[in-house]
Amino acid sequence: MTSLAFNDCDRDVPRKDNSLDINPYNSCVEKLSKGILCLYNKPLINIEKQIQELTTKQNQIIIQMHDENLNLAQVQHSPEKSRNMKLIYEQTSKLKKRALLLQQAGEKQEQQKRELQHLNSLFLGLYRPV
């Protein structure tokens, strides 16, 4: 940016309508304003582009959420789908109970096997052939 001499600002500046401006600093103010605009114009344009991109992405996400909410509402209010969901829930509950019973049965068998081994070791310890 070029530096402005104070002399440049001392004279009256003709306006666009060919009248003289009374303010002697008008040209300095105008040049400074243009300089500030030049400094901040490019970053502001970039920020504006970024805001537009964010707004576009946000609108896309809002549309996707709306579609998902509609799909969820259809599933919740569909008698056939809700019946299927109930059946799946009941089947998974039964499978969980069965898995728990099988696990308990396996643990019980292991416990019985350990007790039998313990009894065998006691029996063999008490009964020694002479």
Write the layout of secondary structure elements.
Elements: H1 26-77, H2 79-126
Instruction: Give the helix proportion (percent range).
Output: over 70%
Question: How many beta strands in the DSSP annotation?
Answer: 0
Mean pLDDT: 82
Distance between the termini: 116 Å
| Series of secondary-structure elements, N-terminal to C-terminal | HH
Q: Specify the number of helices.
A: 2
How many whole angstroms does the radius of gyration measure? 43 Å
Query: What characteristic shape results from the CA principal axes?
Result: elongated
Structural class call reads mainly alpha
Low-confidence stretches: 1-11
What composes the largest sheet? none
Determine the strand fraction and express it as a percent band. under 5%
